[in-house]
Structure formats: C-alpha cells, structure tokens
Amino acid sequence: MKYNHKPIEGKWQKIWEDKGVFHAEDNSEKEKFYALIEFPYPSGQGLHVGHPRPYTALDTVARKRRLQGYNVLYPIGWDAFGLPTENYAIKNHIHPEIVTKQNIARFKKQIQSLGISFDWSREINTTDPDYYKWTQWIFIQLFKKGLAYKKEMNVNWCTSCKCVLANEEVVNGVCERCGSEVVHKVKSQWMLKITAYADRLINDLDLVNYPERVKAQQKNWIGRSTGAEVDFKTTTGDTLTIYTTRADTLYGATYMVISPEHPLIEKWADKLSNIDAIREYQAAAARKSDFERTEVAKDKTGVLVEGVKAINPVNNKEIPIFISDYVLVSYGTGAIMAVPAHDTRDWEFAKKFDLPIIEVVKGGNVQEEAYTDCATGIMVNSGMLDGLTVDEAKKKIISWLESEGKGHSKVNYKLRDWVFSRQRYWGEPIPIVHCDKCGYVPIDESELPLRLPMVESYEPTDNGESPLAKMTDWLETTCPCCGGKAMRETDTMPQWAGSSWYFLRYMDPHNDKALASKEAIKYWSPVDWYNGGMEHTTLHLLYSRFWHKFLYDIGVVNTPEPYAKRTSHGMILGENGEKMSKSRGNVVNPDEIVDEYGADTLRLYEMFIGDFEKAAPWSQSSIRGCRRFIERYYNLQTILNNADGIRPELESSFHKAIKKVGDDIENIKFNTAIATLMALINDITATGAITKEELRIFTILLNPFAPHVTEEVFEMCKLGDGIVAEQKWPEYDEAKCKDETIEIVVQVNGKIKTKLNIPVESEKNAVLDMAKADANVAKAIENMNIIKEIYVPNKLVNLVVKP
Ligand code: ANZ
Ligand code: ZN
C-alpha cells in the first residue's frame, strides 16, 4: 500500500485542532504535567531543522503523559522583541511590528506542519501590549523594592548595533549577535540587582533536578569566592585595599598590582614621575575586553607606579606597585597583592619584571614555576604562620588582621548586576519618568501598558540615545508624584525581559487583572520539565530564576524555583559535521523534508538521530530509513488477522517493548525507544501476521513519535473508540519482561571454554549437563576427575578438575 503523507497529516492536524484535544484544562482532578520548551525568536530566516529537535522531544513526553492520564500543559509563544527584527526593519524600511507579524505567521505555519501537540489557545507574544504590560509591572515592583536602579556605568558598547550589551552578550570581545567590535563607554544605565540573589541562586540549585553540567555552569557564572580584604598603607598615607582568597600567603607578597582604572592613580597623578607612560597604558587597556585581559596564556604587560610604594601589613616591608591589565577594576577591589611563588599570572609578571619570588608554602620549586597546587601545604618564611597548614594559616591571619583593624574576611562574586537598559526602539518601554523635583518615579500602574509609540525612524542615534528620545510629544509628561513637568525614560528593556517570566503567563494567558491568577499559578507551578539549549544556561536560565525568586518574595508565586527539572538538547549539525549556516551551504530546510517525507518522518528522524544531549550531524540516508520504517508500520494492516490478544510467541517482546519505550521516553533516550520499536516490528513481520491487539499496542507506542500515521492506521483498522490521542498508554507485566534466555560462561579450572545460552533461572543440574555436553568442555575434562562443580546462577559454571 502506498503511504501518502500529505493528505493524512493535514487531516489529523485539523481534527486535533477542531477537537481541542491538546488544550490543557484549568480545573482538573487529573495530575498536572507542565512541559516547556524555550519559545522561539521569530527570525526572518524561518524555522531551522534545529528547532524541531527539542519541540518533538517534549512533544513525545507530553503525548505519552496525556495517554497516561495527566492533564498536560504544553504551550508555545513568541519571544519577539529584539535586535534582529529591528535591524531587518531598518534595512528594509518596514515597521518592526509588521516584520514581527510576518515572521510569526511563517513560524506558526511551519511549526503547525510538524504536528506538535502545543496548546495554541495559550499562544503568547512578548511584543503584545497585553503581555508586556506585565513585564513593565514586574519592573515597577523591582524598582519599588530598590532592585532596579540607575547608575553611571562603564558599559560594553557594540559599535555596529550602537547599543549597550550585557557582559553575557559579549563573546570573545565581540558582540554575540553581530560579531562587531565591543568597546567600553560610560553611560547612565538601568540596572537590576541580581547580585542580591547570588547566594540563593547557588544554594537553591539543591532543590531542582538539573543536569550536573548545567548546575556547574550556573555556579561558575555566579562565581562565589571566599577570601579576605586586606588594607595596605602606602608611602603617601593612603590605604590600598586588596581582595585575596589566599590571605595565608601575605608574607609572599612581593609587589602590588592595581587595575589601570584604579581611582588612586588620579589621586597620585601629580606625584608620579612616569604619568605619561601610565596614561598611555590606561588608554591601551580601555580598548581591550575583560576576556583578552585575563587570558592566562597572554604575555604580561604593565607599568611601574613611580613615586609611591605599598607597605605589607605583616612585616612593614615597602613593596612596589604596578598597574597591569590582568587586574580587573570590576572584580574585588580592583587591586591585588601579588604572590608570584603561588600564582601563575603573578609569577609570569615577576619573571618579566625581575621581581623577588618568595616561597611561603612548602613543596614546589618556585624559582622554576609557580607552585599553585598548594592548598594543603605547610607554611614557611611566614613569621607567625610558620609551620601551620594553609587552612590554619588562613584562619590565624584573618583573625590577626581583624584584631589589628587591617582587614576582614569577605565573600565575592563574579556575577555583576544586570545592565537592563537598551538604547533601541524594539523593546518594552521602561515605565519610569524623571522629574527634577522627585527624581525617578514609576508611572501609575493603572496606566500600564506604557505602549511603544509609533516613530518615523527607529534607527539608533549616533550619540547612543534611543530613537524614543526624538519623540518630544511622548517624552514630555507629568510627574505622577508632584504633577510637575517630567520626562519619560527613553531606554527600553533588553530582549531577556519578556522571557524572564513567560512560563507564568501560559498558566493564565488572557488574564487582564494579574500576570496570572493565584489559582492558576498554584495549580500549574512549578514547570515540571523545561528543555532548552546549553547556550541559555548562564543567561536566560539565571535571569528567569532571579525574577521568579523576586516574585516569590513579593508573594506573586508560591514556589522558590520556577523549573523542577531541566534537560538540554544537542545541536543539529550539517551533513559535514559543521554548524549549519548559509555561508557553509549546509542548511537543511525543514519545510522540504516535511514536504517530501512527511512530518512523522522528520519527527522520528530527529528523535532517532543519536543521543539527545549531544550534537548530531544531519543524514539524508537516515531520513529515508525512518520513512521506510513508517511505511512498514503503515503496511502492517496488510497482514492483520482476526485472532484475539497478543500471540504467545510475541508476548515477551511486547511487554519488554512497552516497558522500554516508556522508560526511554522519560529518560530522554528517544533513539533507543525507536530502535526498540524497529526490533519489535521485525519480530512481528517474522511471524507473517499481526493481531488487532498487537497492532493497537504498537500504534499507541509509536504515536508520541509519529502521531499522524498512527491516528490514520488506528482509524482505518478500527482499533478502538475515539482517536489515539484519547487512548490509554499500555501497561506491562514485569514478570513477562524478563529475558527468557541468558548467556553464561563455562570455565574449566578457571579458564573460559565456552559460552552457553540457557533459559533464565535454569536449574543447576540441567546447566551442568548442558555445559559438559559442549565439545570444548568435554575435551578439557576428558580423563579428568571432577573435584568441584561451581554454578553461579545466570552467570557461570566452573568445573575444577584434576588428572
Ligand atoms: C593573592 C593570591 C595568592 C591569590 C595566591 C591567588 C593565589 P577568585 O577565586 O576568582 O575570587 N584577584 C583578586 N582581585 C582581582 C582582580 N580584580 N583582577 C584579577 N585578579 C584578582 O580569585 C581571587 C584571586 O584572584 C585573589 O587571590 C587575587 O589573587 C586575584 F597564591 O591574592 B590572590
Ligand atoms: Zn515630581
């Protein structure tokens, strides 16, 4: 029989939508299951074959859970603000709102052609004023709690996007989006105080089921470090405070390094004989990214601060001060004590500038290389610390510093507050006005949403102000506080804003009184399973956890964590193993695959392509293999007979398959679930027939992967009432899942002579008889006396023999 996928797939997509079978119920006695994928950015390129991988994976889970009787919420929406759309709009002179509408329409059509069981009645769009009203509302709550504030900042500035970037958006010194150079610039910015949540963002990882690599990345990004701040006096009478995680090594500090931006340089400027060289070095450092500056491998550079020295508080020795770009102004105190014996960067710097290297922890050869692996050593050359272990020395020196008023213990974080301003048009307006009398004041909540005004031109201005700054009508307003003249904020929010809380909106997407009702939040929270890309681990995942914790603190949500479980998929690469891109000419268009082979084939293929968590190269021949499997399944109806139930010879195969497919879907082992179904179809066709019950079970097991063809076969062969999506997931009998035969080894005097396939749990004597009957074994025991017969059930036989 010919399988004609086009009419069949279209037919079932329409039936599902008309019946609303995938609509989640808000009031249900059933147990809820909330599955979430990272909603797409509707770019101008349309859907990529990478998109369906996570969508299909969670669709498989969602469909299976529905069959198991869960009330499933599996929603979708559009993360539609942001630069790519705006840049496209500028280039083509189309308003970003229109571009967004067009892109969404195309994406929607493409996604719908895949037969993903999304609840389209809950579709959301971050650029919809009914949606961003609540993004703005959350911002106002953050502002009221002092967690949104304005600050003069040395920011990352993309020279091409003309826009401020968060640290996270700068990759290897260039803009993550456009690849252009990123420079530093001082600007007044809205900031969100994510650092206030740093500890909880680390500690609460204990509450969630995330892959270890995801937890580790989040912890590294937050970068909690426990150490001490130590005050060094200078010969000018100033205090130079440093941060160190190794206060125990204070006696080994032979010089100091301050960052080129350190404020003491300005204070000392008149006294420094080489101020010109220092200025030159500062200018060069400003052009480099933090990444370039702190790379361990790079050659160390620096300039001596001529005219001022520091005094080591433990021994009152005067030591030189350098400026060097390997010390960052934004971390710790922007100054360090250098301990070249035990720190690699300090050691390289000391060698280059010929500075003394003093060993303070025993064990290495510090004139040859830095001895850094010294967390457990014994202190030397360290006065009051001599003979102590590193841990003891840390405690002792910190309490000494505290008693002398020269330092104290201190926890530092790599995490910085979140730069939340963008000088662009296509984002949520920040709902704040500035009044000369009252300062920054949020607009009245009853005035939300504060809509983006229509502008003539959305190009950013060359001085770096948002295009909104040119809209005088919109700009000038009255102060909600004193009624006087006030000016609106012209910066907009970054693209991360809308995605920081969208999972809550799906719970109650049409609510106009709250971001979602208390009941909906209580019923649906937390998200049970969130799948997304590894590239979002340190950005979106952290930001949304932060917002959720804030909403928890103000009583809007009732769980401390938004996502109970997180999984991450690997990328789909081109057939050549490289990342798919236009320039490499290896892009596969999902529309063409759906057209030629059908959505079921594409879905099955994307789930079969290899370990879900790893990158996988595209393979056209494997696509054809998946299509053939679907055709084989479709043709099972040609061997359908009238017998009842499952035939005895297939009973074990079926029970095992039910167990394996179910377990594998839950454990994101989709590829082995499909392999199990492929093996089962072989077992079935080998018998030359299939019963209705066998076909019914096979159909339900295959349905989460290939929903269209299974619905069609279920209907054609009248396998039950209603449609497959309304059936029950089959159950298995554990006793029937046991392997009937098992391989054991047979040894003579401990040497392997043969392997035997025996029925599981065979009786000892029967196994011994089988073993002795084997030709190799028989030869080995010929003319021998058997001293001992050892049998380890289901594992081995060992015959101990003597001549
Ligand atoms: C003396 C020392 C001796 C250090 C030693 C290390 C090893 P984490 O763990 O990342 O917090 N440091 C401090 N502030 C810095 C800055 N603004 N830029 C660059 N480096 C900075 O690292 C803390 C360590 O990094 C600190 O401890 C300091 O060097 C350096 F055997 O102080 B240490
Ligand atoms: Zn005012």
Automatic annotation (TrEMBL):
Keywords: Aminoacyl-tRNA synthetase, ATP-binding, Cytoplasm, Ligase, Nucleotide-binding, Protein biosynthesis. Transmembrane segments: none annotated. Residues 650-766 form the Methionyl/Valyl/Leucyl/Isoleucyl-tRNA synthetase anticodon-binding domain. Residues 219-402 form the Leucyl-tRNA synthetase editing domain. A motif ('KMSKS' region) lies at residues 579-583. Residues 413-606 form the Aminoacyl-tRNA synthetase class Ia domain. This is Leucine--tRNA ligase.
